[in-house]
Q: What sequence folds into this?
């Protein structure tokens, strides 16, 4: 089977497989990539029974020994305690050092699974099998994992590159509407990170996207993954001044909103708002025409999004972003991104006011 | 400054500096190796005030911003809870992602520090500054870290190779007698892993070693590190059939004794006993003459060791090792090591009986 993309790294390059009905080949691909005999499959209540059944069956058909571990869904599961509970369950079951862990689910399962795999007996083989739009187009690639701490989001974690990523677009067919929008929120950063015409594509195909049309979702995923795999290949551990960090456009405001909502507003939704607010700051600086921001706002309205910002005041966002020092990745005309740390409280207020008028 | 050894790895090769009074150069070496500006120094109550003062002063002289974090001493500190407390302290202090952590202490500080560094904001730059004989000759090199779980020793951990290792032999001058013996216990595996004449050296210089004679300790450390750095360079993550795992000679019985004593018997002491017991199994198999084992026993007696095995029955060791399945690295004549998993309960009983007669 030919991978759609390859992440090229100094030590551990790996392929990203993307297609309809690929889950059936999970066992076959694990054999091909010499995954150890003992495979732990981690899923949450959100991964879907059909996906879990399909994954386990595919692995068993190829002769793997499997252990299925489940956890509740939701961002609150991204905690050191949850990782500790998984370690305990794996030790009780006698999972050996030569084993693999497959994260079957969305971003939360990928984060918790990646961190669990990277710290169990000094590291298991890791495979990403994303089942949501957001994880298929973005979070399953790049090896970042992390759990939250009362003092910060994703501050406990590591890099663990997967052996391979398997994205079965067919799994998106049963995705709840809210999850499609969450994925779209994250996707909407890519027009500003190297693929401006992706915005045209999304506007033109919004109906098909919301209908979970397989071929539309696949083409959209391909365009995102093309950028993501390139950026990760160039800057595995986010150490360059203009590398992976460019993917954080919209994330400074986004993270603040997500955290202040106590994760009531999901990551992709918060990033959607973040890109619009940060885009508006760029407009005010004269770095970008207002057209793309209005187009984002129009998509927001066409989707009838009404993210509930109750209780999240401008003052609390200002405080959380501690403006004047926090880094922002601001979009610009022609896909030119700027990394700045001099956004003023007034500019931020203007960006948030624009959100308020959506 | 020229390093004594170099660990050569695919992605991150690094030097090991070894010498008298090197601690003074810590800041200089951190500059040379482009360590980030913000440096967390982790030590325990056992690291020694002089060492901590010296390290902090050297770093500040070179202009680094330092944060000193302490923890109690002892194997019980190797816990996920301790790592969590250090994460919290670092988040409270605002330690950024671009920072370094220096483990200043023995094996416990190295393990806890390495794991903390590898999981804080997806990985800090890590420096090993070992202050005990055991950590200088062995555990500071190789990148292994780990904390304990009620269900197993070192089962939660990762690989994080340091940027460099700085071993100041002068720090050993104030080392308690018990710590010298603990170090020797671990060192006594090296005659069986490629350096048979090291046993002659130790026998001849035992008095000087116990007097913490600088040049003797240094020559001994050099011989151990020569083997360790080679094995790590060939097999970074212990994946070869005959690689790093060969360094685990004596460790199957050793780990069992250490754990069953609830860490009352220290790691190196337990390994000392483990090498003797496992050596005796080799003798009974006809794989080795009994001479080296009797020489080890004689060193044990010359040191007037009387490790207290009260409450650690042969039956409990047998159960812990679950013989017949657990891997043993058995020594042989001419430094030939065998990796086996067929040690019978009777053989193990014989080995333990030999210990009883020491």
A:
């Amino acid at each position: 089977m030919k991978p759609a993309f390859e992440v090229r790294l100094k030590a551990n390059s790996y392929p990203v497989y993307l297609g309809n009905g690929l889950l059936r080949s999970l066992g076959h691909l694990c054999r091909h990539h010499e995954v150890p005999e003992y495979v732990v499959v981690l899923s949450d209540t959100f991964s879907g029974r059909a996906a879990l059944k399909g994954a386990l069956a595919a692995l068993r058909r190829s002769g793997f020994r499997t252990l299925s571990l489940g956890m509740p869904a939701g961002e609150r599961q991204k905690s050191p305690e949850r990782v500790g509970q998984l370690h305990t369950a794996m030790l009780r079951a006698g999972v050996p050092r030569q084993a693999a862990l497959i994260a079957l689910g969305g971003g939360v399962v990928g984060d918790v699974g990646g961190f669990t795999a990277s710290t169990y007996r000094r590291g298991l083989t890791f495979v990403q099998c994303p089942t949501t739009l957001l994880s298929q187009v973005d979070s399953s690639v790049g090896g970042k994992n992390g759990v939250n701490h009362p003092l910060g989001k994703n501050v406990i974690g590591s890099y663990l590159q997967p052996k391979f990523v398997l994205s079965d677009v067919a799994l998106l067919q049963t995705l709840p509407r809210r999850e499609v929008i969450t994925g779209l929120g994250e996707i909407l950063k890519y027009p500003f990170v190297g693929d401006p015409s992706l915005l045209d594509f999304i506007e033109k195909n919004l109906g098909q996207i919301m209908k979970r049309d397989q071929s539309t979702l696949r083409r959209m995923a391909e365009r995102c993954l093309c950028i993501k795999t390139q950026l990760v290949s160039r800057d595995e551990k986010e150490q360059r001044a203009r590398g992976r960090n460019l993917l954080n456009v919209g994330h400074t405001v986004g993270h603040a909103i997500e955290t202040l909502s106590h994760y009531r507003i999901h990551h992709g939704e918060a990033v959607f708002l973040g890109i619009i607010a940060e885009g508006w700051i760029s407009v005010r600086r004269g770095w970008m025409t207002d057209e793309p921001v209005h187009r984002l706002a129009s998509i927001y309205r066409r989707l009838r999004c009404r993210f509930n910002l109750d209780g999240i005041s401008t003052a609390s966002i200002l405080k959380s972003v501690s403006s004047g020092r926090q880094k922002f990745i601001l979009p610009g005309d022609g896909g030119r991104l700027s990394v700045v740390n001099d956004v003023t409280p007034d500019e931020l207020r203007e960006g948030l006011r624009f959100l308020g008028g959506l």
User: Anything to note?
Assistant: Chain B touches chain A through 27 residues (CB under 8 Å). The mean pLDDT of chain B is 95. The two ends of chain B are 45 Å apart (CA to CA).
